[in-house]
Design brief:
Helix content is about 30%, strand content about 25%.
Length: about 600
């Protein structure tokens, strides 16, 4: 006899069979057109269901970065000193930014955050900085980062025998290490931008400690570095001469600020702009930094995503009034400034990718915004002057007591002719700027003789001894806007950078107060007052601040250029860059937890 369970199962099977039989029976009764319609409606129902489910999934999920992918970038060489103590070239600095990390790290928005340091403290008088190093901080070889590594790095920078280009930043600073994770810096006087100095990459003492000063530049670690930054060196390719041509780096999973999203970063080194641009056009590399404006037309064919940001650099003509008495006349300096149409100059020299300047402070130093652009050609401009600028310059000279001789085409005053020399370097951007500016001044009636020197000769034989009437050059102002080295009277002689030999008690007071003031609002107010003073006295003609152009793949995300001081600072948030993504339900993201 069947059990109740068996009877129930039999009835269930019978119902299923009966239902399928009825469906088959109905389908057989359908005409071909009715059957086609049924199939179409079934497909539509299935598609609508899938779309609804996809929409629901999109509504309750977000796209987030995921680890993976790689970026290959090309830079100009050589790369000989991948070492924060010695780095000189752009390639050196780029690789150092990827390999090394400091106690602190600058961010794209201009602030400074903890990196190797877990916290820090500043004394009330602003002269003592105490840092605590993270207990989990490691170098790429697995060794712990300690306070002695920090002390060792600073001592090497301060050693005159090593000739570090960063020595001036640490002059007079003493370093003590109360324990293995505490570092104390004592400054001779308060210096508001000092925190920026602590972003310096730290060397591993255990790998460098036996290296003598004379051997320091020749150590193998300069090209096969070990740091504690976001990426570690995997391999280095060299050419027949031993020069590095390619660095392969991998994500450092123990990086203090978190493992980078990119699995690897490849840096290829090229000897010239032409070879670098060709490599990009052939897609040997994904990214190229510091693109000259002249290359933009060629890059447009690659479909690159180009980012741009103003650099905190000031290009201008600085007057040595003691060397050329004619330039001591305020009306001459004012007229020379008025004669140049700086917007047209930016178009001529930079292809429009720059900001005209009227003073010593570059635009956007405090508040910056990364701009993305679509590549397009611009209408060429032939001159850096207009009839309006020339008329204005001539009016200023006439008002200042200068007389114009139509026959000779010269201005004179008290038997003195308006004539002087303009010196600059042989870099293409400098010579193009000097030619455009000199042409404008000649059109206004000044007799200008150009002197173009190789950059090394310009620095050694012209700038350092201050042997020039006027010099066209660029200044790297920096993120913290410390103008002391460029304009304080104590910096008029080498190695100071006061190229205008400017000296006033009021300016010195403002600059000294600004660098010692830790309150940002008060410091900005002092610098605005200083800029007004410079605008009034015109010891220089300020021309432009160039823009930094960075071409990257369109699927590269997370890049924030922010407040760049040098091109290498494009890597400030490189650990946050990503190419791969995934969708994650909101309940599994940090946002839901908050």
């Amino acid at each position: 006899m069947n059990s109740p369970h068996d009877i129930k199962g039999t009835l269930s099977k019978h119902r299923k069979v009966s239902f399928l039989s009825r469906v088959e029976y109905l389908l057989e009764r359908f005409s071909p057109s009715e059957r086609l319609m049924l199939y179409v409606l079934s497909v539509l129902l299935a598609g609508s269901t899938l779309a609804l489910l996809a929409g629901m999934n999109a509504a309750v999920s977000v796209t987030v970065p995921t680890d993976g992918g790689s970026l290959t970038e090309g830079v100009l060489g050589p790369a000989r000193f991948v070492n924060p103590v010695l780095s000189i070239s752009g390639a050196d600095e780029d690789l150092s930014a990827l390999v090394y990390s400091g106690l602190m790290r600058s961010t794209p928005d201009g602030t400074v955050v903890s990196d190797l340091a877990s916290n820090f403290d500043v004394s009330e008088d602003g002269t003592t900085y105490t840092f605590t190093i993270r207990t989990e901080a490691l170098f790429h070889d697995g060794e712990a980062v300690t306070s002695s590594d920090v002390r060792f790095t600073i001592q090497k920078i301060q050693d005159p025998a090593i000739k570090s280009p960063r020595r001036a930043d640490w002059e007079g600073v003493t370093v003590s290490t109360p324990d293995s994770h505490t570092v104390v810096f004592k400054l001779p006087r308060a210096y508001a931008p000092f925190l920026q100095n602590t972003t310096l990459g730290i060397l591993p003492e255990h790998l460098w400690h036996d290296t003598k000063a004379e051997d320091f530049p020749f150590h193998a670690l300069n090209t096969h570095p070990v740091g504690s930054g976001p990426f570690a060196i995997d391999s280095v390719d060299t050419d027949t001469s031993g020069s590095a041509t390619r660095f392969v780096l991998s994500a450092f999973r123990n990086y203090a600020l978190g493992r980078p999203h990119l699995n690897s970063f490849v840096m290829r080194i090229y000897p010239s702009d032409d070879t670098l641009e060709r490599a990009f056009n052939r897609q040997e590399i994904d990214a190229i930094a510091g693109i000259p404006a002249s290359a933009l037309k060629d890059l447009s064919a690659t479909g690159a995503h180009v980012m741009r940001i103003s650099l905190p650099r000031v290009f201008g003509v600085f007057f040595n009034q003691g060397h050329a008495v004619v330039l001591a006349d305020s009306s001459v300096r004012e007229a020379l400034d008025a004669a140049v149409d700086k917007h047209r100059l930016v178009d001529i020299v930079l292809g429009g990718y720059g900001e005209p300047l009227t003073g010593p402070i570059p635009p956007g130093v405090l508040d910056r915004e990364t701009i993305s652009i679509e590549l397009a050609s611009t209408t060429p401009i032939s001159t850096a002057y207009t009839q309006e600028t020339l008329d204005k310059a001539r009016t200023i000279l006439s008002r200042g007591g200068w007389k114009y001789d139509e026959a000779t085409g010269t201005w004179t005053k008290n038997k003195q002719q308006l004539a002087f020399t303009l010196a600059t370097g042989d870099a293409p951007e400098l010579t193009a700027t000097a030619n455009a500016v000199a042409t404008a001044w000649r059109q206004a009636g000044a007799k200008v003789t150009m002197q173009v020197y190789p950059l090394s000769e310009l620095n050694i034989n012209v700038i350092r001894p201050r042997e020039y009437d006027a010099v066209l050059f660029g200044e790297v102002v920096g993120r913290e806007l410390d103008l002391f080295a460029f304009w304080h009277s104590s910096q008029r002689n080498d190695p100071g950078l006061n190229l205008a030999l400017y000296a006033t008690v009021k300016a010195d007071t403002l600059l000294s107060q600004a660098r010692a003031t830790t309150d940002k609002g008060a410091r900005d107010k002092l610098y605005r007052e200083f800029a007004d003073l410079i605008e009034k006295e015109k010891p220089a003609v300020f021309l432009y601040a160039p823009e930094f152009l960075y071409a990257v793949p369109r699927d590269m995300h997370g890049i924030e250029l922010g407040a760049l001081t040098t091109p290498a600072e494009r890597f400030l948030n490189v650990h946050e860059w990503y190419r791969d993504t995934e969708r994650v339900w909101n309940i599994f993201t940090n946002e839901s937890a908050e």
